[in-house]
Structure formats: C-alpha cells, structure tokens
C-alpha cells in the first residue's frame, strides 16, 4: 500500500506515466433528463435552479451504487470508509446545489481548509431526504462548525456527547431504499446463516452502467483541451462545467470510499494504475484553495454557471478531509 496525504490505495502495477489532468466534454442521459426541458438562455443562479438541473441520482446514491454487488445487493463487509465518505458526499451535494458556503473570514488564509467554518446560504429544501435533514440540522445550529466538524458529527465520529443528535443514522439503508423508489434497485431478503438481512440487488443495470462508463471515460480520457477551455459559448452548455465537476467529485468520493476499484476491475494493471494516478491528480487540483492554475479557469466557468465561490471552497475543503480520511478513522 502507498499513501498520498493520508489517503491509501492498493498499488496494482509498476510505475505509470502521469496522465494529463483533463476533463471529458460529454453529456450523459442522466444529466440530460432534467436539463433538456430548460430554456437555452437560462443560466442557473438560484439554489432551486441548481436542483432542477441536477442529475436524478445524488452523489451519495451513485457512490453506494458503485459499492454494491450487483446480484447480491450488499456492500463489502470489510469496507470501513464508505460511511464517512457518504457524509462527505452530503456536504459536496449541498455545495453543488448552492446551499452552503465557507464563511468569509480574512484570517482563513492561515487556516487549514477543513477547519474553515460553513454557513447555510439557502435553507430551501431539495426534496432529497438526507440533504433536507442536513439542511435542517444546519439551520437549527446556533454555532458555526467547520467542514470537518460537520462530517465528523453526521457520521458519529466524535466523542462529544452533546453532538450525538447530529448523527445521520442508517444512511446506507435509506439511500438504498431511495434507489428502490427510483427503480434502480429492488429489495430481497437473504439468509446469512444466523440472521436474515434485507439486500438490494441492481434492477436497472443501464443506470449503473452509465455511471461506470462516465467514471471510466473521465479517468481514461487523454485530450489536448485544457481545463480552461470556455464551455459557455453555446448557451445550452452553460451548466456543463458544474456537471463535469460533479463527475470528478463522484470519482474522488468513490476513491475515498474504497469502491472505485469496482469500476476498474476489467482494466489491465497499467490502465488501473493510470486511473489511480489521475484521481490523485484531481485531489491535488481541486482539494486546495485557491485552486491550482490548471483548475482555476475551469472553476471560473462554474462560477459563470451560477456556482458560489464560497460553495466551491466547501468542495475543496471536503476533498481535503477525504484526502486524509485513513488517518482520521
């Protein structure tokens, strides 16, 4: 095993060439399902507009899908990371939907990203149960808490008994039931010798295959187009930078949750190694603030699409937490 800033992965081959940190310029059926009916001249600005243009599945649901065994319908019993990573995905999803932002503070240039406090900038509900529960918690909280605090408290990774009420319980089961409601999974009961357990096999293979294709195509893409390429010349493309950022965050979250290998199992060792190297490149690019030069122009496009700068800073802070997750748990 090797580590990078505290986040560990299995080395599956020899040294790999460093891949260019470029993004795919492609749409997918899940993303287009909501956006195709929008006016081409409407650039999303409000949180509710972000909800309307967001994919049908949340980041949490996509990460869970990547981790699920298709036929058996359950996660690996040895995965200790996914619960914590899913709480990080809740913060990422709220930031992508312009609900939360880092508090403006001149002293933050000297403060680690994950220790910067977060504020609720839009308390409107999303219609997603876990996201709305997190919004209500933040709205009811008088004190300002940091990004790492929120992830710790929501996951129960804290010895502070006064924060027990912040823990979001049965997250994986609730996500699975949500995917059942959306027709992606089905519910079965499986016997494990001494106990029975509800499992959720995949019933809509096309949805999971689309996620797998999006993840692998992003990781394997080699292109001469820089991240700073303007994507706003065509008004129909205005939301594309946010959707591309979402795919990068899905990959980083799956990596932190130890489920990314499930998407790469059919690759040869060299390809898999290149994919892992590219994920670590994403962390270096988007897990710092201010972001590195190669990512700045791209995030500028996200701002033009309506993303709050404070929300983008939250995203960088969550990636900072995920990069050190193995040392935190």
TrEMBL record:
Where it sits in the cell: the answer is: Golgi apparatus membrane
| Composition bias, Polar residues | 26-45
A GO molecular-function annotation: phosphatidylinositol-4-phosphate binding
Task: Give the record's keywords alphabetically.
Answer: Golgi apparatus, Lipid-binding, Membrane
**Which GO cellular component terms, listed alphabetically, does the Swiss-Prot or TrEMBL entry include?**
cytosol; Golgi cisterna; Golgi membrane; trans-Golgi network
> Where this protein primarily resides, as one coarse class?
Golgi
Q: Where is this region: Disordered?
A: 1-50
Looking at the record's lineage, which domain of life comes first? Eukaryota
| Membrane topology (UniProt) | Peripheral membrane protein
Query: Does this UniProt record's set of keywords contain tRNA-binding?
Result: no
Is this entry keyworded Glycoprotein? no
Q: Name one Pfam family in it.
A: GPP34
Q: Name one GO biological process term.
A: Golgi to plasma membrane protein transport
Its family remark reads:
Belongs to the GOLPH3/VPS74 family.
Protein name, as recorded: Golgi phospho protein 3
Lineage, opening ranks = Eukaryota, Fungi, Fungi incertae sedis, Zoopagomycota, Entomophthoromycotina
């Amino acid at each position: 095993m090797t580590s990078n800033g505290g986040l560990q992965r299995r080395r599956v081959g020899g040294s790999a060439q460093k891949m260019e940190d470029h993004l795919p310029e492609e749409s997918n059926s899940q993303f287009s399902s909501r956006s195709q009916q929008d006016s081409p001249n409407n650039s999303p600005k409000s949180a509710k507009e972000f909800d309307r243009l967001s994919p049908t599945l949340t980041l949490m649901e996509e990460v869970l899908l990547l981790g699920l065994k298709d036929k058996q319908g359950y996660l690996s019993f040895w995965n200790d990371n996914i619960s914590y990573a899913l709480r990080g995905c809740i913060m990422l999803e709220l930031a992508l939907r312009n609900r939360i932002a880092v508090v403006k503070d001149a002293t933050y240039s000297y403060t680690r990203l994950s220790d910067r406090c977060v504020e609720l900038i839009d308390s409107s509900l999303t219609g997603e149960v876990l996201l709305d529960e997190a919004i209500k918690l933040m709205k009811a909280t008088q004190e300002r808490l940091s990004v790492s605090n929120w992830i710790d408290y929501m996951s129960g990774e804290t010895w502070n008994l006064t924060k027990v009420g912040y823990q979001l319980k049965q997250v994986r089961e609730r996500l699975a039931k949500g995917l059942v409601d959306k027709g992606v999974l089905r519910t079965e009961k499986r016997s494990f010798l001494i106990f029975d357990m509800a499992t959720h096999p995949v019933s809509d293979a096309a949805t999971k295959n689309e996620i797998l294709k999006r993840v692998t195509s992003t990781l394997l893409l080699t292109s001469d187009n820089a991240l700073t390429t303007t994507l706003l010349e065509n008004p129909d493309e205005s939301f594309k930078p946010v959707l591309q950022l979402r795919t990068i965050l899905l990959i980083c979250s799956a990596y932190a949750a130890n489920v990314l290998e499930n998407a790469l199992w059919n690759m040869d060792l060299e390809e898999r190694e290149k994919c892992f190297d590219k994920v670590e490149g994403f962390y270096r690019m988007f897990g710092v603030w201010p972001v590195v030069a190669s990512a700045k122009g791209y995030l500028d496009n996200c701002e033009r699409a309506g993303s709050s700068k404070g929300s983008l800073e939250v995203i960088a802070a969550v990636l900072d937490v995920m990069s050190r997750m193995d040392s935190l748990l």
